[in-house]
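worker-3 :: picked Glucose 1-dehydrogenase
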Amino acid sequence: MLLQEKVALITGAASGLGRAQAIEYAKEGAKVILSDVNAEGLAETEKLIKDNNGTVLSIVADVSKKEDVHSMINKALEEFGTVDICVNNAAILADFKASLDITEEEWDKIMAVNVKGVYLLTNEILPHMLEKGKGTFINVASIGGTIAGVGDAAYITSKHAVVGYTKQLTFNYAKDGIRAVALCPGLIDTPMVQYAIEQDRPEVVRQIESIPSKHIGRSEEVAYFSVYLASDKAKHINGVEMKIDGGQSIS
Ligand SMILES: NC(=O)c1ccc[n+]([C@@H]2O[C@H](COP(=O)([O-])OP(=O)(O)OC[C@H]3O[C@@H](n4cnc5c(N)ncnc54)[C@H](O)[C@@H]3O)[C@@H](O)[C@H]2O)c1
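worker-3 :: tokens ->
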């Protein structure tokens, strides 16, 4: 198993890619700490993992709130003594709005969750990892962290920020045993975009058309890739965007 003896914390674990990664990490031997603002969804993910004999701790927390993030890490360290892998996955999207259609409140909220949340959680756990001389961050960005047109103006900005932040983490801390990878999925069939797929929204129809195979990715496929990236087998992958998009971003 690729993640035997590892402890992994995954945000946004109540749904979509967070849930899929949590399930796959647990199958690969990791003890998983699940976090989300959605307590009900979190309980469902916890049940799915426990039914499969996984070891799991669930914590309801908002990644954009420093006090939540602080107490989440305290609880995680109390329970498991360490966190080896931090998957910064929680994020929100404001449909496919252009800049003029995004309110200041929406902009601030997206930046708070998608960017500040990553920074807050990273800074909370980084000192512990530095003390151990080892730690891995899987920062779930998006191909929207490298191209435009796959989300709203604030979301695209936030995902570019996550990619940049990931590079800087590697630049500053790789020498101390830290790895940070920006995991960049293309269009994946999760609740974040399902409504738009079901409504045949032009923004997603165009995205599907731009995937050479015309197949939308599945959360499990992203989860398998994430497991590999988080594992010691990927130790030379650091500070880069790793795309999983079926070729969506090649043209
Ligand atoms: N689905 C896609 O096509 C796609 C493509 C590229 C990147 N991504 C990225 O993958 C990640 C997961 O997205 P998803 O598609 O599974 O979406 P999703 O909406 O299904 O899941 C996101 C989860 O984050 C949680 N969340 C929202 N705000 C939070 C907060 N403040 N604190 C803690 N948790 C919070 C939600 O409750 C939800 O459970 C995101 O970073 C997203 O940007 C998704």
